[in-house]
Write a structure and sequence with these properties.
The protein is α/β, with parallel strands linked by helices. It has 16 helices and 13 strands. The protein binds beta-D-fucopyranose (FCB).
């Protein structure tokens, strides 16, 4: 990589950061997801072979994947208690931005009853970030909701959006002073489809009508949150973080492939973003993969390697995706998640290098890209996969809770220092 060139291309105040989600790291959460984990851990362990043995590293993960404990977030990586240590790691890695969540179920454990202790905790958390000159990117909802909200039907019911609005209002009143960037919802497209079309995530319903309702209600929730936050603090920059894929036609000369590609781009990438286009100041992009479509569906791309979680790795697919997002919306873009499961740390440096090249190319073509937040700062609880996928720039030993910076992260930190 040419260092002199990077200096010119990346804007001076570019955010180089990392991303986490409350439920995946904090520990001690009680929400609809943690309840589901406890109810389904044994079943997930028993079905692991059927679901996961196609993965290239099955032999290495199978002991963990067949163990019920793997599927319980439990104490997390104790980030709730160890946040100062973890924020210090951000500084050590030369990062100047951090995306994290505030956990709704902690702040509002029962309807309308606020947990002031949790609110004070998050105030200290933000102050710690500020003290270290790290820009906070506050995330409001990352798939987990209080149990009482889920019992009322969660986002399946339009009338329940008012509960989310009440939570957002409370956050706005209590926690916005130290915050300039807010992300309302994480990947509403992924949540709605995996929970309500594939039935893999809680509440495990396979129901297209409910899928559409939940997706629609999340869109309403985003719009409402945007208005509440802007009313409270007009300068705050608000966005959403959808999962966007670089969707391509497998055979670009085939009309069938082109048509299915255009449809998928519309439904997966643009549908939600179009509906909130007047309700966002920046666009968050969570990029993990490229998908190739034929007229009849999604094709695998065996010419590129798989990461530990079974995703084909094409970091360069970020470039055409960024061009398309920019072309459609002309709003500042922040990469709110991007990374890979790589327990041997064999691909992470290569992945980041190629991601940087993709970002440089997009910037040189005029895309207003403002930041890159790597997923993730720490190894964490990966939803229905559990603990075996290792996404962290920093490895965590869950027995001792010891944090160890991975070699790729050391390299990235040096690269940032040279190029800032
Ligand atoms: C994204 C999620 C994030 C994490 C990564 C690997 O889809 O938003 O929480 O699980 O995938």
């Amino acid at each position: 990589m040419k260092d002199e060139k990077n200096e010119d291309i990346f804007p001076k105040h570019f955010f180089w950061g990392a991303s986490t989600a409350a439920h995946q790291v904090e520990g001690g959460n009680h929400n609809q997801w943690s309840v589901w984990e406890l109810a389904h851990a044994s079943e997930l362990a028993q079905s692991a072979h059927r679901r996961l043995s196609w993965m290239p590293n099955w032999e290495e993960i199978k002991d963990q994947a067949e163990e019920p404990e793997n599927y319980v977030s439990g104490t997390g990586v104790e980030h709730y208690a160890r946040y100062k240590q973890d924020i210090a790691l951000l500084s050590e890695l030369n990062l100047n931005a951090f995306r994290f969540g505030v956990e709704w179920s902690r702040i509002e454990p029962s309807p309308g009853k606020w947990n002031q202790e949790a609110i004070e905790h998050y105030k200290l958390y933000f102050a710690e970030l500020r003290a270290r000159k790290i820009e906070p990117f506050l995330n409001l909802w990352h798939w987990t909701s209080p149990v009482w909200f889920e019992e009322k039907g969660g986002f399946e019911k339009r009338e329940n959006v008012k509960y989310f609005e009440r939570f957002v209002k409370k956050v706005a009143e209590e926690l916005l002073d130290d915050v300039a960037y807010v992300i309302t919802l994480n990947e509403p497209n992924n949540y709605a489809s995996i929970s309500y079309l594939l039935g893999r995530w809680p509440p495990q319903k396979k129901n297209p009508l409910l899928f559409f309702r939940v997706y629609w209600n999340l869109m309403c929730a985003h719009r409402a949150a945007y208005s509440i936050l802007k009313k409270h603090k007009p300068s705050v920059q608000v966005g959403c973080a959808p999962n966007l894929s670089n969707i391509q036609a497998k055979r670009p000369h085939s009309i069938l492939d082109e048509v299915s590609t255009k449809c998928m781009r519309y439904f997966w990438n643009w549908w939600f973003l179009r509906r909130i286009r007047k309700y966002q100041d920046f666009i968050g992009v969570n990029y993990y993969f490229s998908d190739y479509y034929t007229g009849f569906g999604k094709m695998k791309n065996p010419s590129v390697p798989l990461n530990d979680a079974g995703f084909y790795m094409e970091p360069e697919g970020l470039y055409p995706l960024l061009l398309r997002v920019w072309d459609r919306f002309h709003k500042p873009i922040i990469i709110t998640e991007n990374g890979l499961a790589d327990h041997k740390d064999q691909y992470r440096q290569w992945w980041i290098e190629n991601t940087v090249i993709a970002m440089e190319r997009a910037l040189s073509e005029g895309v207003d890209l403002r930041g890159y937040l790597h997923w993730s700062l720490l190894d964490n609880f990966e939803w229905d996969f559990g603990w075996w996928p290792k996404y962290g720039l920093v490895a965590v030993d869950r027995k001792t809770m010891k944090r160890t910076i991975r070699p790729s992260a050391r390299w990235f930190a040096k690269w940032i220092e040279r190029n800032r």
